[in-house]
Design brief:
Fructose-1,6-Bisphosphatase, Chain A, domain 1; D-Maltodextrin-Binding Protein, domain 2; 2 domains; 24% strand; globular; binds 6-O-phosphono-beta-D-fructofuranose; binds manganese (II) ion
Length: 333
Amino acid sequence: MRRDLEAWLKDSGAGEDLQTLLLAAAGACAKISALVRAGELAGVLGSAGTGNVQGEVQKTLDVLANDVMLKMCRDAGVLAGAASEEEDEPVWFGDRAGAPYLMLFDPLDGSSNIDVNVSIGTIISVLERPDGAGSGVGPFLQKGRQQKAAAYSVYGPQTQLIVTVGKGATGFTLDAESGRWLETAPKMAIPEATREFSINMSNMRHWESPVMLYIRDCLAGKQGPRGKDFNMRWVAAMVADVHRIMSRGGVFMYPRDARDPSKPGKLRLMYEGNPMSLLVEQAGGAAFNGIEDILDVEPTELHQRVAVMMGSKEEVDVLRKAHAEKVDAAVSV
Ligand code: F6P
Ligand code: MN
């Protein structure tokens, strides 16, 4: 018989409060999944007519998913505060002042896929509340390595949830009949070698030379320096692209590029980079930002961006080498 999430959490070594929080977050994901599935029938598609702190148009589902996650996790009683990609400032729950955990989340990753019925997901990162912390942004600015747990759910052909409490990454599938998360991928392991990369090629002209060289070598296939043919996939939802890599290997990249030199990439460190990097590392992969491991980046702002290269170890190592050699000459593919 398959274990459900509750039984798995009991066996996981996580303390009771962390179990409670992860169960609440998983419950919120199940609820968001139901809204996603109903789509137009529940009137949840289209724009909410508002913008978020990143200046992006918010979809109705972005806002609903944010509210569901905030409410259900707050009700769990073990969360002192939460920060969301969709909220300018962290929300501190005054009535839960001494609670042990803080959470950061991206309520609906890959929003541009919502209205076209392509996979999207939710990402969460759990931190310990530093002693005495009860307000402001500072307590949230912890390195990725300090995360106590991370998880993402993906709303695709199946609704799945991948969780880590620092002892590997485990996958669950939502059983629509019972509403339970059943263990379907006990020990996720990213193959070290791959022939698949994931990058938005339309940005090629803006890339820096190490990424340009890396992709050039992949595209050269069997006859090129890598000696093998590569395939490419891009879902345009980080959760879905990284989930594919967690399942069968590959490398996912959203590198820093020349479009806006003030931003080190498009993806958010605290809501996307850190939790997904922890899950990837826990599945035996690697995650790098062009300079260091993403989990070692010192956060300075809640909504800060990060360059992302994560997945199969061999590919991340090739990218590390390309960045270390730091080719300055202009390169074209
Ligand atoms: O959250 C940002 C995001 O939607 C990611 O999920 C995804 O990987 C990326 O943006 C897609 O960006 P683009 O539209 O530039 O391909
Ligand atoms: Mn996102």
